[in-house]
Amino acid sequence: MRRRLVGTFISGVLVAASMPPWGWWPLAFIGIAFFTSQEILANSARQRFTVGFFFGIGWFLPALSWMWFLTSPGYIVAVALYASLHGLASLVVARDRNNKSFLFLSPVTHILIEIFRMCFPFGGVPLATLGISQVSGPLHRTASVGGVILLSWLTWQIGALLARRPRDLHIHSAHRTTLKAIYLMVLVVSYFAPHGSNTGKSLHVVAIQGGGPQGTRAINSDPREVVERHLQASRSIDFDADNPIDLVVWPENVIDVLDFESSTELQEITAQASRLNSPFSVGITEDVNQQHFTNAQVIVTPDGQVVDRYDKVRRVPFGEYMPMRSFLASLGAPVDQVPRDALAGSGPAYLDVPTASGSERISVVISWEVFFAGRAREGIKEGAGLIINPTNGSSYTWTVLQSQQIASSRLRAIETGRWVVQVSPTGFSAFVDPSGKVHQRTSISEQAVIDADVNIRTGQTIYVALGDKPWVALVILVFLFGAISRSRFRPSR
């Protein structure tokens, strides 16, 4: 049994290594295949749970390692919780020699766990999903059909098909044939399905990365230094009447003030907007009271008007707010590491940007929100022609989270058929085209100004039209079918 547990742990590590920042995407299939081979052989309930648990430990220990710098207790709890959930999944798919549904029951059960953690706890923690590992692989275009859920499902199912099965495991060949036919159909559909189209219009977008030290928490940083670095980078932009700038984007919460509209920082932004004759999209935090603040992205025009505002809806648990603050404080937890809680916004996920030809709607997902496909989809459903992702990962040492965020921006681009502009104060900043290709990615900590003529696009992908709900329902139906099939063919005792 000890050897088996080592093997399942290594299987999980292989899955983790398929994800950014490592990005060796074929290892996801190999890891799932090795794990499934061990899951098949587990006999007792204890063995089945333990196999799934150790697989999850191998997966999440490296893939969520960035959380250590946010909250080390939270990191340990998250890894143990998610590993336990996959242990429960392996327990549920208990098999015997007559269980011919195992081949598809095991993948959908584990994908249900992934769907669960997209929603719970604290509104969901959709990090290190299996689908994110395939953003550079041949399956990535299927995200335009079924988002990350379909991509994760296909990846797990293919890995299960590659599993080494003992000779006495009677898996019906028709099941394998059916699954292969479904894969082929999905791939064909994803390549011929609508991916949006260019409107013939474009925006000249400039992204500002101010630079600075990586691994420094916001509460330990001088807010004015952050502003100065971004002003310095903005001043380096030359005005060019022959190539006017349509939008300058600053990262998330680079301005921290009591009231932005009465602040010196607004005057400084206005000066640059006036000089370049271009609106600025700026990330701000404002004090509400001693216990709360807001995190928003605003549009500042050359005449100094704040014409639109989006307040972040999805907040980072244990980063921007402390869940169960009173309870955790009673246990002696260091809740003062998050001294104030961000108030959640409630508005739609878009901003209207004034342009020379009128107004252009852009979808906006602030930092953490890029991991939630529904936020980007919401803006596109409202007519947005591109997506911006202002973010701030300067608190985290290493580049695990930042790399996964770039991968998530790539998935959002594929899912929606839109360009994504990601901008961070210390990196990574980049432009991502609708096929998921990354352009002009900056380095960590450097000061950089990147620009591109970004096509304004229209039309809906299948994913934008349908969302996640049909795929969640399909996964549940396949699970129920497999469970019923297993029960029907279980030998009487």
Put the structure in a nutshell:
With 493 residues, the protein is an alpha/beta fold.
Mean pLDDT: 92
Fraction in helix = 40-55%
- State the end-to-end distance: 27 Å
> How much strand content do the residues show?
15-25%
Overall tally of structural domains:
2
**CATH arch. level architecture of the largest domain:** 4-Layer Sandwich
Shape: globular
Count of alpha and pi helical runs? 14
Given the helix and strand composition, which structural class is it? alpha/beta
- CATH class identity of the largest domain: Alpha Beta
Total beta strand runs? 14
Q: Describe the biggest sheet?
A: 8 strands, mixed
Which value, in Å, is the CA radius of gyration? 24 Å
Low-pLDDT segments: none
What's the CATH H-level superfamily name of the largest domain? Carbon-nitrogen hydrolase
Q: What fold name stands as the CATH topology of the largest domain?
A: Nitrilase/N-carbamoyl-D-aminoacid amidohydrolase
Reconstruct the topology from this structure:
Blueprint: H1 2-17, H2 26-41, H3 45-63, H4 72-92, H5 102-119, H6 143-161, H7 173-192, E1 197-209, H8 223-235, E2 247-249, E3 255-257, H9 264-276, E4 280-287, E5 292-300, E6 306-311, H10 325-330, E7 341-342, E8 350-355, E9 358-364, H11 373-381, E10 387-390, H12 400-416, E11 420-423, E12 430-432, E13 438-439, E14 448-458, H13 462-466, H14 469-488
Parallel strand pairs: 1-2, 2-4, 3-4, 5-7, 9-10, 10-11
Antiparallel strand pairs: 1-14, 4-5, 5-6, 8-9, 11-12, 12-13
Helix pairs in contact: 1-2, 1-3, 2-6, 3-4, 4-5, 5-6, 5-14, 6-7, 6-12, 8-9, 11-12
